[in-house]
């Protein structure tokens, strides 16, 4: 049985946050072309961020929407596509990093080979009941 109050073998207290390897994004992004939606999510307890790896098959689309509260970073991992917005379409290619400020309207459409992208944003607060 492990004594959780005792330090780790290197002397680090066991409740001290340490960097951790989560996954190989490239391997997940290269999943079968039929895989779609969120193929990975950051789920560690106590986190301050949310992150998702999204896979869109060829020519599939995330419809136009507006994120009112959160800035989002979007990193294209594999494939290509188009980001739609009020200022016109923008090409997406592997390695493209976008900042999507809160309040911005956008859509995402995958190209012929599909599209995988990582999104990172501040963690959403839990559901709250508000007065009208």
TrEMBL record:
SUPFAM superfamilies per UniProt: RmlC-like cupins (SSF51182)
Organism taxonomic ancestry: Bacteria, Bacillati, Actinomycetota, Actinomycetes, Kitasatosporales
InterPro entries given in the database record: RmlC-like_jellyroll, RmlC_Cupin_sf
Protein name, per record: AraC-type arabinose-binding/dimerisation domain-containing protein
């Amino acid at each position: 049985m492990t004594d959780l109050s005792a330090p780790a073998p290197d002397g680090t207290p066991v409740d001290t946050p340490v960097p951790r390897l989560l996954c190989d994004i490239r391997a997940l992004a290269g999943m079968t072309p039929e895989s779609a939606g969120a193929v990975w999510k950051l789920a560690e307890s106590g986190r301050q961020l949310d992150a998702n790896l999204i896979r869109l098959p060829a020519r599939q689309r995330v419809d136009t929407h507006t994120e009112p509260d959160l800035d989002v970073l979007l990193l294209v991992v594999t494939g290509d596509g188009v980001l739609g917005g009020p200022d016109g379409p923008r090409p997406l290619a592997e390695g493209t990093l976008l900042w999507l400020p809160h309040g911005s309207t956008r859509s995402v459409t995958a190209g012929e080979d599909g599209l995988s992208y990582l999104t990172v944003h501040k963690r959403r607060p839990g559901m709250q009941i508000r007065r009208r």
